[in-house]
Write a structure and sequence with these properties.
alpha/beta; Rossmann fold; 2 domains; seven-stranded parallel β-sheet; 7 strands; 48% helix; globular; binds nicotinamide-adenine-dinucleotide; NAD(P)-bd_dom_sf; SDR; 3-hydroxybutyrate dehydrogenase
Length: 260
């Protein structure tokens, strides 16, 4: 790398985003962290990453359910670091209910955070990537961008949409040195799943840990949760020169969930 590249990782105060930010920092990229947490807590996370890996980091709080906040986050990264070379659209939320009972406000929020925010951040980042002749857009989708599960209408719609958006951007920018890919994780060890584990434990009268294994086996033969770090490693590979020809892909990392 001739210049130090900057990665903006949305939703990097926790889970997959935080692990991805850590792997990218380890590879020497400057990192703009983001989350809902206040500046004090976010600043602590950013400083820890900077101390561990000797790279510049910063943190920006923004609620990405609103377009203006996505724009503020993008501007803040450009002001701090001069560019967004790598954009990891990771921020996401989940809510489960049957379609007929799905609260309309939850539908709107999930679509806004999991899909529209990725569109807005990407449309802002692409022109400068195009001028630079290099860029990486990595959308953290889900197996639910490839297959469906009952009670996840909004999540599945958003994640299928995110995979579609990824493919369109890949086609539009394949000749510009910009790649756009989706990573499609299965059950991954983050706080996002806790509510689902708690529900399963209650329904089946089992402990939280038993619920984990029980729920995993409803979808995949792989007997463990995926480590968030593993998603980060795949993202880092997609940033490498070796991955320049991988674009428009939706890559499962799912313990054979989608092999059925
Ligand atoms: N955990 C899994 O099993 C799994 C599987 C497939 C895909 N994913 C996807 O991975 C991504 C990260 O999820 P995670 O499991 O690490 O969850 P997490 O709950 O640990 O992290 C979610 C992140 O999103 C941010 N966020 C939530 N609401 C936001 C909002 N309104 N505005 C801005 N940021 C907001 C949070 O601050 C946090 O940083 C999500 O897009 C999720 O759909 C997770």
């Amino acid at each position: 790398m001739s210049k130090t590249r900057t990665a903006l990782v949305t939703g990097s105060s926790s889970g997959i985003g935080l692990a991805t930010a850590g792997v990218l920092a380890q590879r020497g990229y400057q990192i703009m962290l983001h989350g809902l947490e206040d500046a004090e807590l976010g600043g602590l996370i950013a400083r820890k990453l900077a101390d561990e890996h000797g790279v510049r980091t910063d943190y920006c709080q923004a609620d990405l359910s609103g377009t203006r906040q996505v724009e503020r986050l993008y501007r803040s990264c450009v002001e701090q670091f001069g560019a967004v070379d790598i954009l990891v659209n990771n921020a996401g939320i989940q809510f489960t209910a049957a379609t007929a009972e799905f609260p309309p406000e939850k539908w709107d929020l999930i679509l806004a955070v999991n899909l529209s925010a990725a569109f807005h951040a990407s449309r802002l980042a692409l022109p400068a990537m195009q001028r630079a002749g290099w860029g990486r857009i990595i959308n953290i989708a889900s197996v639910h961008g490839l297959v469906a599960s009952a009670n996840k209408s909004a999540y599945c719609a958003a994640k299928h949409g995110l995979v579609g958006l990824t493919k369109v951007m890949a086609l539009e920018h394949a000749a510009d040195g910009i790649t756009a890919n989706a990573i499609c994780p299965g059950w991954t060890d983050t706080p996002l799943l806790n509510q689902q584990f708690e529900n399963y434990a209650k329904e089946h009268g089992v402990s939280f840990d038993e619920a984990k294994l029980g729920l995993i086996h409803t979808k995949t033969p792989y007997p463990s949760l995926i480590a968030p770090q593993a998603i980060g490693e795949l993202a880092a590979y997609l940033c490498s020169d070796a991955a320049a020809g991988i674009t428009g892909a939706a890559l499962p990392i799912d313990g054979a969930w989608t092999a059925h």
